[in-house]
Amino acid sequence: MQDCIFCKIVKKEIAAEVIFEDEQVLVFKDIKPVAPTHLLLIPKKHVPTLFDLDESDSGLIGHIHQVAIKVAQEMGLSNSGLRLVSNCGRDAGQMVYHLHYHLIAGRPLQWPPG
Ligand code: 5GP
Ligand code: ZN
Questions:
Q1: Which one of the listed residues 38, 63, 65, 100 is annotated catalytic?
Q2: Which domains occur in the chain, in start order?
Q3: Whose C-alpha in 20, 47, 110, 113 is 20 to 30 A from the C-alpha of 92?
């Protein structure tokens, strides 16, 4: 999508610190980290929010979770843990309307979130 900042990162029109990439998924560092580890996992195809997924995307979402686990294991987070979260829509404070999962780790995380 033309004006989508994450699509521009996928197309390498905007720089990002990429951690992992394959045909379907891109993982890069959040520009404003809220914890020592703060990654964004996105599908390469433009999907605005969780509500825009359909059954044909179940493999993609499963794959994103597998990539999250693989990256987290490689970063040594298996014992300490992490949070994998997707903000969806206004009430969750979604700012970028290209589906993304935050992988946040590296310090104790409060619950419930604000
Ligand atoms: P949301 O509130 O939509 O769930 O989170 C969007 C996230 O994208 C925020 O944590 C924000 O810091 C991050 N972000 C926004 N623009 C950019 C960018 O250009 N590059 C990177 N790496 N992260 C971005
Ligand atoms: Zn996009």
A1: 100
A2: 5-105 (3.30.428.10)
A3: 20
For 24-68, the three-class secondary structure string (H helix, E strand, C coil) is CEEEEECCCCCCCEEEEEEECCCCCCHHHCCHHHHHHHHHHHHHH
Mutate to test the pocket of ligand 1, among 10, 27, 28, 31 (most ligand atoms within 8 A of CB): 31
* pLDDT tens digits for range 17-67: 999 999 999 999 999 999 999 999 999 999 999 999 999 999 999 999 999
Distances (CA, A) of 91 to 9, 34, 55, 114: 25, 19, 25, 11
Ligand 1 atom closest to 87 (CA): 4
Looking at the CA of 98, name the nearest ligand: 2
Beta-bridge mates of residue 27: 20, 41
